[in-house]
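> example.struct
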């Protein structure tokens, strides 16, 4: 070639234009032919080609498995001109029941695991179509979809599958194209079909209407979606973000230790990497509460065991696992799919709309195909009937003809038959001339005419087309649908594991020294049966159970401290302990100061504006505040009541409208006043004077004085008495009160007070740990200003330190099995106590009981 010839064959190209053009072509190729699913069948080209190739090869669910390598060869040889590993990896994922909500390939052999293990090589595994895949391919042979040439134009392949259920939503899709990506989560087949039917019934249905059927994504690995906001956003706009948590529960071992059992993990999370991450955090001392970690998963299900140390609080560890490991993970939703070959972000309604439109086209094309085939067959049968009606003449014409062509022409001329009918008559066997065969032809022709009429009716009425779509989808729903696996929490809460905790009643105990624990009521009763009570354990350290109450794991416990602060914990956040264990020191749970102690504990579920708490301090100040004011929390607590220097909070009681309050001082004074005298105040206030006490005096306690109840008081030296509250005049708050006992140097100051009923018993505890139990009825009932009687013998240096009120433990006669309820006797209790409070008093009563 000469230089002028070479110069004339060179075309000058601007590099910038060429790059722009080439990159655009590449981008469109990736977007349309590789990375994004079609909105109609929810499949990318490689998925569609795998399913079609397996179908063409006869690898149906009722046939034997075939080597995966053979299928991969068919796909890349006929339809998909790419690498074999890309095809095999796609086929493997279509067979994994933890990746697909409705697997489309039935794999035989090692197809990987949720731990991230790779599948065996394709020469070792076998596969065939799964049953749900047959519904995607159904009616493909009836010209329901368009076909196009394969890569070398030697074969035809479907451009979309009929997809008799909304596969895009059921199995979801994920892909990264150029400049765009899709991430559609899987859904429950039953819910998706119900939503599609609802859209057919009401084309104007709103998103709220659709979400009555589709509650949210339903992942094959289960888990829990935290909150609905991300779901609503995705369904409304095509984009959203959701937070998925694994499922875990707490078990107690035979040794009393607690363990966390993880049974479900978030979608796409690798279980082995999750376990490795937990182990790494333990090594880095970020999860020091974990003592051991095991993966006990098997073919029955997932089970990752996280053993905890004795002092660990399971819910706190769970919170850390959610925060620091993939046990809680976020997932973005991008509902991007191809609509008529163009990528579009779609709302939920749009996705269902395009699917229904595709199904309308499929049903119409299938009906046209069936109509054509039925009319062709009816035409042949009508020719048979003409021939049978004139069989003698037909035979005569055929016998008199020189060849087929002459016979065909003469039959057409004589009977007005078509060429197709004539060909069928000439090929008819003599057996068709029998009477029975004639009857079969007549019956078949009558049935075909009915079908033809039905097909024409369907083609003329769109409502019939829609009804067929609904009926066939519902049939698939009943055949392959299952229950939802992924739960959806109402709100997205950070570090709140309440949805993972079963609601059950717990016995919560708080000792005088500030040790706290909880134990299920059933376990508590079982452990107590036949035992001698916990007082023997605690009293070694001169400690005792000061408060015992029953509350749900979902309730709050408000801890009011002597410093006038309040701290809030959920019951499930309290440490679990055995009945014989003292519990965990409150300073390990809450940031108490060195000289700060628990003054009272109130349990509640609701923070109502109509319910009030009444506070009392040792200097006689009182304050009434709505419990609603304490519906907030901080790690270092919030102010419950403002205190003067030297004052401390001594009691907090629930108070109802119209009740009367009794306050008693250490100098033997008592005052009774109506709660209406204390107007409601805010949280950060000091309150008003409830009882006027001298500088050397202090308020011992405050109780609600129920009608018909009695005030029991006891001095430091063990002298006490009970006096009906009716004998105390109702005064205005702020007074000094009246004498409730004659205080003398010999008997000492008052040590405690309780409101009791005759059916109650009292536990008196001394500083040196001596405990006596006495029936309230056995204590003398005396007037207000009397000196009292000896209730407890106290050693010279000892002093009475506390009183506990318990329900009387009545002996019941033996009864036949099943008749015990008939012999139960009602024990009087303080009016206004709830069933839980009464039951708690009974538990205290038995705990302080003597060893039998």
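> example.seq
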């Amino acid at each position: 070639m000469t230089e002028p010839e070479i110069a004339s064959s060179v075309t000058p190209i601007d590099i910038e234009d060429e790059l722009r053009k080439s990159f655009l072509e590449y981008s469109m190729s990736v977007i349309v032919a590789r990375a994004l699913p079609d909105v109609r069948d929810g499949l990318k080209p490689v998925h569609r080609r795998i399913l079609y190739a397996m179908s063409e090869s006869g690898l149906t669910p009722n046939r034997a498995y075939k080597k995966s390598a053979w299928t991969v060869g068919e796909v890349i040889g006929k339809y998909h001109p790419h690498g074999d590993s890309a095809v095999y990896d796609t086929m493997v994922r279509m067979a994994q029941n933890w990746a697909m909500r409705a697997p489309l390939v039935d794999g035989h052999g090692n197809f990987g695991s949720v731990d991230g293990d790779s599948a065996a090589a394709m020469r070792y595994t076998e596969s065939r179509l799964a049953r749900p895949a047959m519904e995607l391919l159904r009616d493909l042979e009836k010209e329901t979809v368009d076909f196009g040439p394969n890569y070398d134009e030697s074969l035809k392949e479907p451009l979309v599958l009929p997809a008799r259920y909304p596969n895009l939503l059921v199995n979801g899709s994920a892909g990264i194209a150029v400049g765009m990506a899709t991430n559609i989560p899987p859904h429950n087949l039953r819910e998706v079909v119900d939503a599609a039917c609802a859209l057919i019934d009401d084309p104007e249905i709103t998103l709220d209407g659709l979400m009555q059927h589709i509650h949210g994504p339903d992942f094959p690995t289960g888990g829990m979606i935290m909150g609905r906001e991300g779901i609503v956003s995705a369904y409304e706009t095509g984009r959203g973000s959701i937070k998925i948590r694994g499922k875990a529960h707490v078990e107690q071992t035979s040794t009393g230790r607690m363990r966390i059992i993880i049974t479900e993990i978030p979608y796409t999370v690798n279980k082995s990497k999750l376990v490795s991450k937990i182990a790494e955090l333990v090594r880095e001392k970020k999860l020091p509460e974990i003592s051991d970690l095991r993966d006990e998963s098997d073919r029955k299900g997932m089970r990752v065991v996280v053993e905890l140390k004795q002092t660990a609080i399971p819910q706190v560890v769970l919170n850390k696992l959610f925060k620091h490991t993939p046990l809680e993970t976020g997932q973005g939703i991008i509902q991007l799919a191809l609509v008529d070959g163009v990528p579009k972000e779609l709302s939920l309604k749009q996705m269902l709309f395009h699917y229904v439109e595709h199904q309308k086209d499929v049903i119409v094309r299938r009906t046209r195909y069936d109509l054509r085939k039925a009319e062709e067959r009816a035409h042949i049968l009508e020719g048979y009937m003409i021939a049978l009606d004139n069989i003698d003449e037909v035979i005569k014409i055929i016998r008199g003809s020189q060849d087929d062509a002459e016979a065909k022409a003469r039959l057409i001329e004589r009977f007005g038959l078509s060429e197709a009918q004539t060909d069928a008559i000439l090929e008819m066997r003599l057996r068709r001339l029998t009477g029975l065969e004639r009857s079969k032809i007549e019956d078949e022709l009558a049935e075909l005419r009915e079908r033809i009429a039905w097909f024409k009716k369907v083609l003329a009425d769109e409502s019939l087309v829609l009804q067929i779509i609904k009926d066939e989808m519902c049939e698939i729903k009943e055949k392959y649908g299952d229950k939802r696996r992924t739960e959806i929490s109402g709100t997205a809460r950070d570090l709140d594991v309440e949805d993972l905790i079963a609601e059950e009643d717990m016995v919560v105990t708080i000792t005088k020294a500030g040790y706290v624990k909880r134990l299920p009521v059933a376990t508590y009763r079982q452990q107590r049966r036949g035992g001698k009570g916990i007082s023997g354990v605690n009293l070694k350290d001169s400690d005792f159970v000061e408060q015992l109450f029953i509350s749900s794991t979902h309730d709050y416990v408000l801890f009011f401290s002597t410093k006038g602060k309040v701290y809030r914990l959920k019951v499930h956040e309290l440490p679990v302990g055995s009945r014989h264990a003292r519990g965990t020191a409150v300073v390990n749970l809450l940031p108490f100061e060195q000289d700060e102690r628990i003054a009272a504990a109130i349990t509640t579920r609701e923070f109502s504006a109509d319910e009030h708490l009444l506070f009392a301090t040792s200097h006689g100040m009182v304050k009434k505040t709505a419990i609603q004011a304490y519906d907030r929390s901080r790690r270092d607590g919030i102010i419950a009541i403002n205190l003067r220097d030297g004052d401390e909070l001594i009691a907090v009681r629930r108070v109802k409208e119209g009740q009367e309050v009794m306050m008693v001082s250490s100098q033997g004074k008592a005052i009774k006043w109506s709660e209406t005298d204390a107007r409601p105040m805010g949280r950060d206030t000091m309150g008003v004077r409830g009882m006027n006490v001298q500088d050397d005096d202090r308020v011992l306690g405050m109780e609600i004085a129920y009608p018909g109840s009695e005030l029991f008081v006891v001095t430091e030296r063990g002298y006490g008495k009970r006096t009906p509250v009716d004998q105390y005049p109702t005064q205005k708050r702020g007074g000094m009160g009246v004498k409730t006992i004659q205080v003398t140097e010999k008997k000492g100051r008052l040590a405690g007070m309780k409101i009791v009923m005759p059916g109650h018993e009292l536990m008196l505890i001394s500083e040196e740990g001596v405990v006596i139990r006495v029936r309230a009825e056995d204590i003398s009932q005396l007037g207000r200003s009397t000196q009292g009687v000896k209730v407890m013998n106290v050693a010279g240096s000892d002093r009475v330190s506390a009183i506990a009120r318990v329900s009387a433990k009545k002996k019941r006669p033996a009864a036949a099995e099943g008749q015990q309820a008939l012999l139960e006797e009602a024990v009087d209790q303080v009016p206004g106590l709830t069933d839980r409070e009464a039951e708690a008093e009974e538990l205290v009563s038995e705990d302080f009981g003597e060893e039998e």
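> remarks
Residues 247-326 form a domain with the Gyrase A; domain 2 fold (CATH 3.30.1360.40).
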